[in-house]
Specification:
It is a single chain. The protein is of the alpha/beta class. The chain has helices at 13-24, 41-44, 62-73, 160-169, 189-200, 253-256, 297-315, 326-329; strands at residues 2-9, 29-32, 50-51, 60-61, 79-81, 86-92, 95-100, 105-113, 119-122, 138-139, 152-156, 175-179, 204-207, 211-218, 221-228, 234-238, 241-244, 248-251, 262-263, 266-268, 281-283, 288-289. Strands 1, 2, 5, 6, 7, 8 and 21 form a 7-stranded mixed beta sheet that branches. A 5-stranded parallel beta sheet has the order 10-17-11-12-13. Strands 14-15-16 form a 3-stranded antiparallel beta sheet, with no helix packed on it. A hairpin with a 2-residue loop joins strand 6 (86-92) and strand 7 (95-100). The radius of gyration is 22 Å and the shape is elongated.
Length: 335
């Protein structure tokens, strides 16, 4: 059983920053994330979008923000469990025991819910053999861009994620095919224009209007796919990997089953401590509500600091909290 001070549910920007704030107080962490990459909606929905309300950054790409937050958290050595959700919870004398969808068991003295609107799950391909390739050559999220270096990639979808990752991976991929059912994309016009510039440069090729019909490969690795149009014409592409972006579903089922006090799908917390109605369970970010709540990333960052300080009193009962400035706390760690 993995033993940690704090279990953080959700690896969006606020969840990742919770690692840093916990570490500043000497608390060890594990992060449980439903998607195959950290970053939550910043990674899954709009990695190439600029965010303008992060202090110190006039503008920053969502993907760059997530990378910076991760680098900031690394000195505290978090354990990050991807493609995993919390499916069981029980109390032990001195801790909560969490069971995940992948069978892991984690003992944590406090839980901080940074789930946003709920556990995000990508909508999978409906082909019978799709599961054989998932995690090896078929992906619903990008965790490391280097995985796709010098690869021929088929990107399916017509939203922000498909367009943004086409633009982001074009410099390292050998070739990218964009497959969509129609010639209209549900993405920012500037991003779509950038994608078509890549088409002119020969880095990207459009396959419109087509849908995925068959996947061919061996031992989890794709060799080619058949596409089909509305007239049942078939087009075969030799590829190395698929990125499929058909949207996300949000699941709050298990969170609401915990007996938390919820209003309109948001978890009620005490803003003084960010504690829920369950002792030792805290909520931060878009998952929570209280009088005067502002749904901003920077608000979530502040809530994280409050929650970690409150959790410290439970995790280290009777201990004096000698909270210092980051320059003092991190001086030795970063040597």
């Amino acid at each position: 059983m993995l033993e940690k001070d704090v279990a953080i549910i959700g690896a969006g920007p606020v969840g990742i920053f919770t690692v840093f704030q916990s570490g500043m107080l000497g608390l060890s962490t594990v992060v449980i994330e439903a998607l195959g990459a950290i970053g939550g909606q910043c990674t899954a929905l709009y990695p190439e979008k600029y965010i303008y309300d992060i202090p110190g950054y006039p503008s920053i790409l969502a993907s760059d923000l997530i990378d910076s937050l991760y680098q900031q958290s690394k000195p505290f050595n978090p354990t990050i469990l991807l493609n995993s959700t919390m499916v069981g919870l029980r109390r032990r004398d001195d801790a909560f025991v969490i069971r995940t969808s992948k069978g892991e068991e984690i003992a944590a003295k406090a839980i901080i819910l940074a789930t946003g609107a709920g556990a995000l799950h990508p909508k999978p391909l409906s082909l019978d053999n799709a599961a054989l390739y998932e995690g090896k050559s078929l992906f619903y999220a990008v965790s490391k861009k280097e995985v796709f270096r010098d690869k021929t990639i088929a990107i399916f979808g017509g939203g922000d994620s498909a367009v943004d990752w086409t633009n982001s991976l074009a410099d390292i991929a050998k070739k990218i095919y964009v497959i969509h059912r129609r010639d209209k994309f549900r993405a920012l016009p500037d991003s779509v224009e950038k994608m078509y510039q890549l088409v002119k440069q020969g880095k990207v090729e459009m396959a419109i209007p087509y849908q995925l019909d068959q996947i061919y490969g061996q031992d989890g690795y794709i060799s080619s796919v058949d596409l089909i149009d509305f007239d049942r014409n078939v087009k075969n592409l030799k590829i190395d990997a698929i990125l499929a972006f058909f949207g996300l579903s949000m699941d709050m089922t298990f969170i609401t089953s915990l007996g938390l006090d919820v209003s309109n799908k948001y978890i009620n917390v005490n803003p003084i401590s960010m504690e829920t109605n369950l002792k030792g369970v805290y909520g931060v970010g878009d998952a929570v509500t209280y009088p005067g709540k502002l749904k901003l990333i920077l608000t979530g960052f502040a809530e994280t600091a409050v929650a970690c300080h409150a959790a410290h009193a439970i995790i280290r009962p009777g201990a004096t909290l000698r909270f210092g400035y980051s320059t003092t706390v991190l001086k030795d760690i970063l040597k």
